[in-house]
Predict the structure.
Amino acid sequence: MQKLELRIQPRTKINPKWHLFRKIKVWLIMTLSPFLAYAILVPFNRTLRWRACVHPETEQLIRSGKPFILPFWHSDLLLASSVSRNINLHTRTAIMIGLTRVGEIGSRFFGMLGFNVVRGSQNHRPVEAMKDLLEALS
């Protein structure tokens, strides 16, 4: 399996008009939070026990290596990431995350896990994000 090569994704920037304390606070949160989440959630995900109840056609599609779209709810993001890592799909997986500061933390965290992150949402950068996702499917 080959790793996806996506274009460089935009990052959330620190506003130069903010006062120094706020700049430092936002930088610390955006820098340290992904590492803390990684330190807590990766060992937690390794303790999860789950049983895959996959439709035979979906299982055949996973094994074939063909691209496909797997939808899930926001609340299932960590479980979906754990499952995709366990069946070795994470290098072929692209996750779309919004351009907010919270999305920045999430994009750094999932980047640390080895996922390809596409930045965008319905309201911000929708065309470029869709092009990146379509590129990831090809």
Observations:
- The first strand starts at residue 94 and ends at 97.
